[in-house]
């Protein structure tokens, strides 16, 4: 699976969040980090880039409950009617994900809260775009008040984010386990021969055993469920 | 009441809808027609303009379920945190209205429809902005498929639009009647002495009689209601 991360941020160099996210993806294969810059877009080049990828990510800080203007300009110029739904559906079956950061508190995004609406509601225009283009809309990936996160919370965020970008099945526990196994196998081949290599291999062994046990449990449960349904 | 119409349209000269709307307001007092042009904004001048007006209108064609990028850029630059909700609430108690045109069919904007969401849902980011700034959010004024409207439908649209922009109480029937009376009085003073003047005065008389009759009916109904509640 190939992923295109479209980064829309007017002050990218000053953004700690974006720096962190970029570093998180440093060793990830099949990821294209694509920063939008002021000015007009090369429509054909942008459309080609979209077609080469399977998962498209809009990544931005929330400004007035939406993306910064630069992403909208990109949408207005690049996503021509004919490309998205007119003569063909060039984006059909691709995935659309939203990585959105905000300095506002998570608890404000609720009816009666400070922001009055949930992020799911505020991001409807992107969901509608995905629908029009026959894309699969992924659950948005929100980052609230990054600057206040503990180191531990940032590490958890890093792993979730890596999966949101590169794991084709990031929503199921099974998919997450498989992804971890892949990452560890890669790690082992990288550090071959060192003492870390052995430790990592042991961890991988434990995770694989766990997964096999869980898969067996899953089978047993589904058999019990089948019996009950009869 | 003073109204500021902020027009965001990348191809204004080619837009029949915008031409029609502009003409509709030609003889309206207290309306400022403010077109956003490409480039950066004079933040102080824009903020002053906002403060001089009571009703703020965002007027635009719907591009990808939102305003064209130029309006978002204006929002991102002009609506600074301190201006809207930081140190003060410069827009508090002002009204925010949305005039949005689309070539898509009205019936598509519904769950299960072609666009999947209602316009009310898609415009949530503006509603959230109004909430944050302690503004009153007006029911949006949508224009569907303008090019296909009959002449009669366009005339009805013209009058509704004029009221959306200039009538402080456009939602109640009583407010609409008062507005019509004002418009006719203005018309009469303009055409003083001509044969049209007499006809217009007669129409005004009929409307005024009607309103008085309706007001009496309203009183009677509210007395009946009071009796029932006791």
Automatic annotation (TrEMBL), chains A, B:
Keywords: Oxidoreductase. InterPro entries: Flavodoxin_fold (IPR003680), Flavoprotein-like_sf (IPR029039), KefG/KefF (IPR046980). It holds the Pfam family Flavodoxin_2. SUPFAM superfamilies: Flavoproteins (SSF52218). The keyword Oxidoreductase applies. GO terms for molecular function: electron transfer activity; FMN binding; NAD(P)H dehydrogenase (quinone) activity. The keyword Glycoprotein does not apply. It is an enzyme of class 1 (oxidoreductase). Residues 1-163 form the Flavodoxin-like fold domain. Its EC number is 1.6.99.-. This is NAD(P)H oxidoreductase YRKL at Putative NADPH-quinone reductase (Modulator of drug activity B) at Flavodoxin 2.
């Amino acid at each position: 699976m190939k992923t295109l991360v479209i980064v829309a941020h007017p002050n990218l160099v000053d953004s700690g969040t974006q720096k962190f996210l970029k570093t998180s993806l440093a060793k990830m294969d099949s990821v294209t980090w694509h920063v939008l810059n002021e000015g007009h877009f090369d429509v054909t080049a942008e459309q080609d880039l979209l077609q080469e990828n399977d998962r498209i990510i809009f990544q931005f800080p929330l400004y007035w409950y939406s993306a910064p203007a630069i992403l909208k300009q990109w949408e207005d110029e690049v996503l021509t009617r004919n490309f998205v739904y007119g003569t063909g559906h060039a984006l059909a079956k691709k995935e659309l994900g939203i990585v959105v950061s905000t300095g506002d508190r998570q608890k404000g995004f609720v009816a009666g809260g400070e922001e009055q609406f949930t992020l799911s509601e505020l991001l409807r225009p992107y969901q509608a775009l995905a629908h029009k283009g026959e894309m699969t809309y992924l659950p948005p990936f929100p980052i609230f008040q990054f600057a206040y996160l503990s180191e531990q919370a940032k590490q958890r965020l890093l792993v979730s984010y890596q999966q949101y970008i590169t794991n084709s099945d990031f929503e199921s526990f099974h998919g997450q386990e498989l992804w971890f196994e892949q990452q560890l196998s890669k790690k082992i081949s990288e550090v071959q021969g060192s003492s870390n290599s052995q430790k990592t291999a042991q961890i991988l062994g434990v995770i694989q055993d766990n997964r096999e046990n869980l898969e067996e449990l899953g089978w047993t449960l589904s058999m019990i469920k089948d019996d009950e349904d009869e």
